[in-house]
Design brief:
six-stranded antiparallel beta sheet, 1 helix, six-stranded mixed beta sheet
Length: 451
């Protein structure tokens, strides 16, 4: 809000008194310069003249606990006055904001409670005239959206029933001066959700998906439905705020309903090979009897098992080829006619590489070679080395062999520095090299040099 105040300088008043003897001395009030007071709402860290940020608002919207900067500005005959020139026109000012008072040009403030507030600033010029400006502030509760039904990732829908399903959500943070609407998106393909608008309606009302959802579904299969909501709050002046949910998911029941499908994700942590794995996945019932045995030959994959609904199914994953990967297991309850994803089975390589001499005795003219063996994530070829009596040597690599020229004349100790792609480090062990006649003998490893 803005109000006008007329500015009369001391010189002008004196001139008015001296020349007041005739009608020609009267000055039309409309010809006098006027001052207009403005309230600006600025970002917390804004510095500089407030009028350089933009126009003063007629109504302002801020969030709960959002820190903003309130600033007063003045314009004279349509031109803003710089802060350094305020004192030319104004002798005092006072803010009233939420019952608190300030007598500065600007200050930072945050509202702890949502609601409608009015802030005011009153200024007194050097003629002791008062100008008061008032600004409406709406303190907003941030918008948020929460899933209600169906449970994310669960299966509650008969694909061939004509009943369909209601999907429900709650929107929080709708203040009394706001209206809200929700845009609903849904698709059988997760990548297409945001390109598949389905409806726009009152956020308080669920949306109904007409059945049957998947009338042509294959036997012993399930459809996944992906959906999301964009909730929008609007105020009368066009101010809006939005909340976008994650993409939710539910799937249809099997039809017929005598089996359930369990998708079992398998992750091989730090696995770097292009080749295959050979993992045995065993499903046991609560009594320990085997329900099914599956195999997986592809890294970062998942397998699907079809079993009858029951409680306490244990799933065990064992790697048969890359045996440095430790087994993992999980226990799940299998609901009726379900198609769902079990917890990921994570196989972790926690075994360091193995180092062994290529042979026990080498001819003095040939290089000494060690085999580097890792049956998990594989050797990290960016981190390796050989030291003799703590002095690094030049080495060569050939497949899984590391080789070096023997520097020992009689006896010395070699250490091999190597690690795998899971950062398992070969321990600091010592290999004894002894030269006898035309041969170099390798023994060890030892925990300490000289033992």
């Amino acid at each position: 809000m803005k109000n006008k105040l007329y500015i009369f300088s001391i010189a002008f008043i004196f001139a008015l008194l001296v020349t007041s003897c005739g009608d020609d001395s009267l000055v039309d009030e409309a010809d006098q310069p006027t001052i207009i007071q403005h309230i600006f709402v600025l970002p917390e860290r804004f510095n500089g003249e407030p009028y350089n940020y933009g126009q003063p608002p007629k109504t302002a919207y801020v969030d709960v606990d959002e820190v903003v900067k309130f600033s007063v500005g003045y314009s004279v005959s349509g031109y803003y006055v710089s802060t350094s020139d305020y004192d030319t026109y104004i002798q005092s000012k006072q803010w009233n904001i939420n019952g608190e008072h300030f007598n500065v040009n600007s200050f930072r403030y945050a509202f702890a409670v949502p609601g409608h507030y009015q802030i005011s600033v009153s200024s007194i010029d050097f003629m002791n005239d008062t100008i008061t400006s008032v600004l409406d502030i709406y303190v907003n509760t941030p918008i948020s959206t929460k899933l209600v039904f169906p449970e994310n990732g669960y299966n509650l829908v008969d694909p061939v029933s004509e009943d369909g399903i209601d999907i429900k959500w709650n929107v929080y943070g709708v203040d009394e001066w706001e209206t809200t609407s929700c845009d609903i998106f849904a698709s059988f393909n997760k990548e297409d959700v945001w390109d598949s608008p389905q409806a726009q309606n009152d956020c308080k009302e669920p949306i109904h998906i007409i059945g049957p959802i998947a009338p042509d579904i294959d036997e012993y299969s399930s459809k996944h439905i992906y959906w999301a909501v964009i909730a929008t709050n609007r105020a009368k002046n066009g101010w809006i705020e939005r909340d976008t949910t994650p993409i939710f998911e539910f799937s249809t029941k099997f039809h017929p309903e005598d089996l359930a499908a369990i998708q079992i994700p398998i992750n091989y942590t730090d696995y770097s090979f292009i080749g295959s794995v050979n993992t045995k996945i065993t499903l046991l019932n609560a009594d320990g009897d085997t329900l099914d045995v599956l195999s997986n030959f592809v890294p970062q994959n998942s397998v699907t098992a079809y079993i009858k609904p029951q409680l306490g199914v244990k799933i065990i994953a064992e790697e048969l080829t890359s045996t440095d990967f430790q087994s993992d297991s999980t226990i799940i309850n299998v609901p009726e006619a379900a198609s769902f994803i079990a917890n990921t089975l994570t196989l972790i390589d926690s075994v360091p590489p193995v180092v062994t001499p290529f042979k026990e005795a080498f001819d003095k003219s040939e290089q000494i070679s060690f085999l580097l063996i890792d049956n998990g994530t594989g050797i990290n070829w960016l981190h390796f080395g050989v030291s003799i009596n703590d002095i690094p040597l030049e080495t060569t690599l050939n497949s899984s062999r590391i080789s070096f020229t023997n520097p020992c004349k009689h006896s010395c100790y070699a250490t091999i520095q190597i690690q795998d792609n899971a950062n398992n480090v070969y321990p600091e062990l010592y290999w004894h090299l002894s030269v006898e006649n035309d041969s170099v003998y390798v023994t060890g490893p030892f925990n300490n040099a000289g033992k």
